[in-house]
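Batch manifest, entry 17 of 40.
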Amino acid sequence: MPYGIDTSDISIASVPTWVWLLLLIVGLLLCFFGEIIWEFMISILGAIIGSMIGFAIGYAIGGYLCGFGLMFIFAIIGSMLFQYLAKAAVALVCALLAFGAAAYLTYTANPDDLNTPIIVGLVVGVIVFIIAIFFVEEIVSVFLAAIGGFLIGVAVYFIVGGDFALAYAVLAGGIMFGLGAAFQLMYQRQRKRPTRAPPRRRPVRETRPATTTAPKQTPKQPPSQGPKPPTSNV
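Output type: structure tokens
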């Protein structure tokens, strides 16, 4: 009985159903909106840590007024900085996994050589790190969709129960993972697509209404007559 808790009395069957329903909702949110939730949580965490650092620096410099002023400035900086640090951390984890896999496979091919696995692992890790930096949002989306699918599978397993609970759980988790990953990848592609300005329309020329009056006709001038010849009287 460690720390005064009797683990023998803990049973999964005693967990209320609303807990599994809540787990199901969390899994659905991670499947379809995982990347958005991830960015929001990282921003909130960076803002909290940045505001604490800013308040401490401002209070040490000029008291409470300066502390509250720097708190808001550092909160904005911390929120933006944590987003970039989180992306770099995800890319670094991918690079480390690629390094380990490449080094292990190279070592198993030739156990006598120890330098070649390290060199191959470093090259593969650097390449994966560069690629992951450009596609870190897609990687996070797929990873969170996988976590959401797993949570959905666990929730379905304990909600349904019975002999076919495992089959239902695997089916539900796999389908939700596929749909959620596809939805988030499409969302990322739409967000990265550059927005084009609408084409400019030519100004519409104003058309005057046609007049029904006939055009004025200039009167014809009679032909000019020359001077009459003088008549002689006999």
